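Objective 1b: paired records.
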Amino acid sequence: MKKKLNEFVSSPQPKHYVNKTSLPQAFDWGNVNGVNHLTMSRNQHLPQYCGSCWVHGSTSALSDRIKIARIAASAPGVAAGVDINLAVQHVLDCIDQDNGCHGGSIDGPYTWMHKISLFGHGVSYETSQPYIACSKESSEGFCSYADTTCKAAMTCSTFSDMGGDCVSLDKYPNATIAEFGSVNGADNMAAEIHERGPIACGIDAVSILKYQGGISSLVGHGIDHVISVTGWGYDEASGKQYWNVRNSWGEYWGEMGYIRVEKGNNALNLEEACAWAVPHVFTTTNFPCFEGGENCQTSPKAYKRVEAEKRQKH
């Protein structure tokens, strides 16, 4: 993971124009003037074990940035609408350059999202392709029996013994990205987070398996996990700044699913490799499919054909 991360940058980056000394002592998107701009916490290991942190970290950070954009576009006092949570399973089923439940890269999801965005396709929403913690190569739990062929969205009409069927949909709510890039170093990370939203970063997971709270200042021994960083805080007792890190191990772990990591000394290798993406177009008014999807159906292989065509063009 120490290789240079992929990028497609088309606008000025905060790390180049923000005066780092003007950044606040503490800032987090979970509480901006009393308003929460963050989306849900998740658990990558249910309903069975799956090493899909690399998708959870990136989709959570991007879902947050979509929420931030919606709140910014809303009139004062007007709700931005129900949170948009992007479908981790869509990425797991369709991405072709990583290893599914057996690991992936920090920048892989954004690289793939940008590729499909160029062709007018986006990541579907969680309700269109719910997370099942399975991928093509996984045989954990019920994964050997699960359909993990590439589908962006699907639905089932009724019970199979009543003639029902499960079908892929060619019309579904989705989100695209305009650009993506990388950032590292405490000041550059803080500038990116403050100006545009949470980021996905690599971290040393082995050292935090039994984390029970507090600020971790542990020296990292290599990146083997991906999380999202939502902001930073300041602890008056110790005089330390710390990153607010959202993990994807469920809210039973750590501090309600989060860990605080000391800021400014690359604790747990957190400040070495991070990725960001800028939302482009996202659905807020859907095409109304029937319950069984009859008016939105595509063949199960249709989306895979689109993927194949794109790979040929590249």
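Objective 1b, second protein:
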Amino acid sequence: MIIRPGGLKSEPATGNGTLTESPMICGAIHRADVAQLVVKCMLKDKANGRGLHSSTSQLNLSRF
């Protein structure tokens, strides 16, 4: 599993972190939210072998 975070922020977790396999999504995410997502992924077999992108505020680059 590889999680590629967007721009990292050093603020408390928001609980709004999201994961996608789409490389066309980007945005910022808090470090604590990335940590929460990593733990959740480690407990899910379907995350094995995947590359995921994480953010809390998303910008869909396919629109540009």
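The longest strand covers residues 51-55. The two ends are 29 Å apart (CA to CA).
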